[in-house]
Amino acid sequence: MDDFTPKRRARAAQMAASALALALLASTSLSSPAHAEDADDAAFAGEILVTGRGLSETPGRPAYSTRTLERRDIVSSASGRAEDVLSSVAGFQQFRRADSRSSNPSAQGVTLRALGGNATSRALVLLDGLPMADPFFGYIPLTALSPDTLGAVRVTRGGGSGPFGGGALSGTIELESAGAEQLGLLTASALGNQRGESELSAAIAPQLGSGFAVVSGRWDRGKGFWTTPRDQRAEASVRARYESWSLGLRTVVPIREDVELQARGLIFRDDRTLRFAGADSASEGQDASLRLVGRGAWQFDALAYVQARNFANTVISSSRFTPVLDQYKTPATGIGGKFELRPPVGDAHTLRLGTDWRRSSGTMNEIAISAFSGNVTERRQAGGVNSDLGFFAEDDWRPGALTLTGGVRADRTVIAGGYYATRDAQGTPTGRTDYARQADWTVTWRSGARLALSEALALRAAAYSGLRLPTLNELYRPFVVFPVVTEANAQLRSERLEGYEAGLDLTPMSGMTFTLTAFDNRVKHAIANVTLAPNVRQRQNLPAIAAQGIELGAHLARGIVRFDGSLLWNESKVDGQGASADLDGLRPSQTPNFVTSATLGLEPKEGWRIAATLRHVGAQYEDDRESDVLRAATTLDLFAQVPLGGKASLVLRAENVTDETIVTRNQAGSMDTGVPRTLWAGLRWGM
Fold first, then answer.
1. Which residues, 6 or more positions from 79, have their beta carbon under 8 angstroms from its beta carbon?
2. Higher model confidence: residue 549 or residue 40?
3. Looking at the DSSP assignment, which residues form a beta bridge with residue 201?
4. pLDDT over threshold 80, residue 46
5. Residue 469: phi, psi to the nearest 5?
């Protein structure tokens, strides 16, 4: 099994450096001004344009419920964090309400459309085409996704059948990095808040001949806020201290007139303390990828990547305030790639053919400790290997005002090498269970239609299915949120989605858009933490989770005024049978039935930006039996950017202006709360 030793970490760093060195070498050799003859030929033929992006959006995308966030919205959030930006899309949800300063990283799974109740991501998150989910846990490393370096975000709800569609159960979130033309040569920001916390970021984006490079970094640190209510604090209670940093290098160079090479490297680390002194968690990663994009008659997109990740966590007893579990390392490796081809089949059709492959491996290492003596009681190790080989085909057809799209995908999934082993305090083996190999072929599909009745009104409808393989974490790793123990389950089956939706897009005038979507989604074999006893849960496949709902969207850009609103109302229920019969008809845990977000902005002059965001999250339940409620919360955030001259700006931000109490955890009255009123001020350059 994998082990995140210094040797392996060095090897991962070498792979990242090699990928970037290759791109830098290409940029020097392919774009050097010394090639005067080539430069003259380029000038005669027209300038070579590199974008740093993948292939263009397909004509069939508008047939599905889709929301796009522009760069101005991405860099104008009150917290400056990726999850806050994505919360502008109603229905986007983390497992818990806490943000990436005050939650355990392993709970940062994201989903859409109230298909929650699980800390693993049910939505596929891509950064420049690269899957970002942790290979072992399935969570998203949100602190490694700096909004300052993003150019656009596209959220497509519903199952997917395109590249890496095997993970797009509830939808796809595509993060697109900003290019040199958006960033400029230098962008930077430095902010601080009333608690003495800081947020620093910078990016340099020089042009390299006909290509460009982006070197970026971000550092966040703070003593944190109190997550434990005042009347529940003990002597061992502490603030949610945090520190995270990330470094990225991205290069884009032309190989020839219609082909470009993109290379990316990312290194990050995130340290947090939650609730009690010593309850520390750490996550880190090194990612590298190479991407070749061709925009000629035969368009193609080829991607290869490697990810080395690690996670550590210490569990502190909430009664004796001593360590009871040391999850000292969970090394994991993800490797994979894709190839997509778009052959020329005529102007009316856009055909996509392709394949992708992902392999995730990892090992949990932990030590159980007696809360009374402090002695080691048991040493545990568990892990395995998951792989997914997919083939997909999709065609978009545009016969006039009607757009038709349809696709099919076949996935060969393999779960292998799974085991759980124990040793005593001295390291002597005391038990080992090896789990049987599971392999299967699964076919999923999606289809949609959009009819433009006029320039102002379009109708759309879609149907789809989706697939999600259980993660190594769900299969093999038990965990503790004291005093509740959640057991793993190596017999878990893959989740399957079937869904339908219909909607309309209304554009009564330029700069004004309204959208309405009604959906009916059903996740078969949904994985959830099922209560077996008061303090014991186990991951199990429920017969299904069904969610029906309405999504509303509004956008207005008239003069100096901008408005963006999003609303989700849903009825999400568990279909319980057999062992889960007592859950039948109940709402999945951590799932609100009403979420809305509205942002009103003013841009009185160039460079000015004033915005207020009002969000409401309805009540939700902590557990699957609806015994503990997380009450509804309404928050108001403010943002202002004022030019100071040149490229410098003053930035003022305010989170949770009304100081609303946001309950993020409630286990029989023991609570955690989210971010209180937080006021930021600082300077920006070039944004």
1. 99, 637, 653, 655, 675, 678
2. 549
3. 189, 218
4. no
5. -80, 140
For residue 454, the surrounding DSSP H or E stretch is: none
By CB neighbour count within 10 A (0-12 exposed, 13-18 middle, 19+ buried), where does 10 fall? exposed
Region 154-158: mean pLDDT is 91
How far apart, in whole angstroms, are the C-alpha atoms of residue 624 and residue 579?
Answer: 13
Q: What is the CA radius of gyration of the chain?
A: 25
Distance, in Å, from the CA atom of 31 to the CA atom of 34, rounded to the nearest integer, reads 9
Which of 309, 365, 363 lies closest to 335 in space, CA to CA?
309
Locate all alpha helices (DSSP H) within 75-187, ordered by sequence: 82-86, 180-183
Amino acid at 634: T
Question: Has residue 330 got a pLDDT over 80?
Answer: yes
Q: How many helices (H) and strands (E) does the chain have?
A: 6, 40
Pairing of strands 207-208, 198-204: unpaired
Residue 22 belongs to what H/E stretch? helix 6-31
- pLDDT at residue 35 is higher than 50: no
Residue 90 has what DSSP assignment? B
What Å distances lie between residue 467 and 175, 266, 444, CA to CA? 21, 28, 7
Question: In the chain, what percentage of residues exceed pLDDT 70?
Answer: 92
Tokens at residue 12, please?
Answer: 């991962």
Q: How do strand 171-177 and strand 123-127 relate by DSSP bridges?
A: parallel
Q: What is the DSSP letter of 658?
A: T
Question: What's the rounded Cα separation, in Å, for the pair 385 and 231?
Answer: 45
CB atoms within 10 A of CB 475: 24
Place of tokens 């949990």: 364
C-alpha atoms less than 13 angstroms from C-alpha of 298 in its C-beta half-sphere: 4
Tell me the C-alpha distance between 617 and 596, whole Å. 7
Residues 269-279 pLDDT 10s? 999 999 999 99
**Comparing C-alpha atoms, which of 588, 490, 607 is closest to residue 538?**
490
352 in Cβ contact with 58 (< 8 Å) = yes
Please tell me the predicted confidence (pLDDT) of residue 166.
78
Closest CA to 463 of 503, 495, 411: 503
Alpha carbon distances (Å) from 64 to 119, 154, 223, 376, 413: 26, 12, 43, 53, 27
Other C-beta atoms lying within 10 Å of the C-beta of residue 264: 27
Neighbours of 656 (CB within 10 A): 21
Q: How far apart are the first and last CA of the chain?
A: 45
Residue 436 is classified by DSSP as: P
- What is the per-residue pLDDT across 190-205, written as a single tens digit (0 to 9) for each? 999 999 999 999 999 9
CA torsion angle for 74, 683, 250, 213 (degrees, to 10)? 120
CA 154, chain centre distance (Å) = 12
∠ Cα 303 52 130 (to 5°): 35
Identify residue 653 by its one-letter amino acid code.
Answer: R
pTM: 0.91
- Name the token pair of 212: 């460009």
In angstroms, rounded to a whole number, what is the distance separating the alpha carbons of residues 141 and 173? Answer: 14
User: 66 and 157 in contact (C-beta within 8 Å)?
Assistant: yes
